[in-house]
Write a structure and sequence with these properties.
two-stranded parallel sheet, about 130 residues, 6 helices, single chain
Length: about 130
């Protein structure tokens, strides 16, 4: 087990959890557990990182901290993520793909997609189009 300790400490430092290194995972707050999950994903130094709603269930403060963390760990790797929180999407995505019933509804930059009439109608209804 000692052979993995240095790498473990390096990873929790990278994600900002070093001050909690002596805590049992079950005692961590929800947002901290999500951040620890990201550290686990980084353990193998992937060139592609897949994230499914990385901020789901978090409060605004934790969401913003997670956005900053994802930006930090994205350097040098591709990140693909699924999220319904448009603040998160707008903060992180270079390219956005909107799906409706499994089909591509729109693709492009966040600004392009968020102003797309089909996207507005599909997700906000006809009154907003």
């Amino acid at each position: 087990m000692g052979q993995f300790r240095a790498r473990s400490l390096e990873l929790i430092e990278e994600v900002g959890l070093a001050h909690l290194a002596d805590k049992v995972v079950g005692s961590l707050a929800y947002g901290q557990k999500r951040v620890l999950e990201l550290a686990l994903a980084l353990a193998l130094d992937p060139s592609l990182l897949l994230l499914d709603e990385p901020t789901a269930g978090m409060g605004r403060e934790d969401v913003d901290a997670t956005i900053a963390l994802v930006k930090k760990v994205a350097k040098g790797r591709a990140v693909v993520f699924v999220d319904h929180n448009m603040h998160v999407v707008g903060s992180l995505a270079d390219q956005v793909t909107v799906l409706q019933q499994g089909r591509i509804l729109a693709q492009g930059s966040y600004e392009h997609v968020r102003l797309n009439d089909k996207v507005i109608t599909a997700y906000l209804g006809h009154a907003h189009a």
